[in-house]
TrEMBL record:
FAD-binding domain sequence ranges: 2-342
Source organism of this protein record: Streptomyces reniochalinae
InterPro entries registered for this protein in UniProt: FAD-bd (IPR002938), FAD/NAD-bd_sf (IPR036188), RIFMO-like (IPR050641)
The keyword Flavoprotein is annotated on this UniProt entry: yes
Molecular-function GO terms, alphabetical: FAD binding; oxidoreductase activity, acting on paired donors, with incorporation or reduction of molecular oxygen, NAD(P)H as one donor, and incorporation of one atom of oxygen
Protein name per its UniProtKB record: 4-hydroxybenzoate 3-monooxygenase
Keyword presence, Flavoprotein: yes
Amino acid sequence: PRTRVAVVGAGPAGLLLARLLHLHSIDCVVLESRGRGYVEQRQRAGILEQSTVDVLRRAGAADRLEREGLPHDGIELRFAGRRHRLDFPALTGGRRVWVYAQTEVVKDLIALQLADGPPLVFEAPVHAVEGAQDGGCTVRYTHGGRERALTCDWVVGCDGFHGVVRDAVPAPARQVHERVYPYAWLGILADAPPVHDELIYAHSPRGFALASMRSPAVSRLYLQVPVGTEPGTWPDERIWDELDVRFGAHADWRLTRGPVTQKAVLPMRSSVTEPMRYGRVLLAGDAAHIVPPTGAKGLNLAVSDVTVLARAFAHLHETGSATLLDTYSDDCLGRVWRAEHFSYFMTTTLHTAPGQSSFDTRLQLSQLERVAASPHAAAELAENYTGAPLPGEG
Ligand code: FAD
Ligand code: DHB
């Protein structure tokens, strides 16, 4: 088969790109290595920035988000026995975020795509991309037990951090910038109502903790743990007890407990591959860059990349000019590096590294005090958290 744009990976980046291309009448095919059920159940991010919601609305993919998503106008920081709330709309001129799980974004986009969108092929792992510098590309993949080839003008790697499309860029043509953090997160999903109606980010002498949610009946909670922790070493009671201690600036404060339905350990790393384009091959989302989860930027960056990319393809389609594809990488990297810095800042301000000195802890607390005391420092955090408008957006 042949298509204009081959999209590798049906995570949020690949699915939204396919939707946006379809709305511009640009031919594409999405190849996804896993099955639909797996992709729809994979537990990941939960916070959508204002601009992510705006893009999903414009893509006609926000009906259920409008009904079931939870708008949030702030977060709470806890440190040194204090609680401090940041009021996002007041600090940013009206911007906010939404709690709506990545699993739900993915389900909504898959349903749209299967209803009237371009082909979406599950269980079709891609193993090679050829012709990045030629007149066209060939994508080699396996489907139904057979080797297949898709020819196309452009290949977009939306295949995540462990994807293969990046390998179509020869090593000398790309630079990787990376940082690994000396701690991990234990994340749980529990059938228990959230303890508070906003997210709580807690600095504590025993490490970071985060209280998030998926719905009024389901809590999503995270706990800093050592690298290499086995989830089995954390029975449910131990998790709840530790969360209570880390959040518990006040003796009368307790999480509402309930059955833990999922438990997993996530490593933490920052990485950026530059440039995000090589000839006919483009990278978007986690395939090009990852952030540590603190601050919830990963999914939002995937959405901003493909929004810029869809506009570049639309420009080519309508005018024959590839200028926006030529500037794609530069157009994305400013926002990418801003999110890299913010995620690094949130991570290193809120976590306690193994063997951390009392000096470093004092610096963290001074920074948190500063955010609590100064509207300028608070606005800096709030602007980064809610995200800047995308180009061409109000
Ligand atoms: P992905 O969602 O990774 O999608 C890539 C897709 O490509 C996958 O469906 C994969 O199966 C497919 N694929 C891979 N290789 C191939 C191949 N060879 N051929 C075909 N298809 C292929 N962010 C937060 O803000 N908060 C969180 O709590 C959070 N938790 C996370 C937990 C984990 C375990 C991970 C990995 C990420 C988490 N993130 C979180 C980050 C966020 O989920 C990602 O930034 C987001 O998923 C990026 O979307 P994407 O479409 O670029 O990549
Ligand atoms: C969630 C994850 C984050 O990394 C974050 O900063 C906020 C919320 C979540 O999964 O709900």
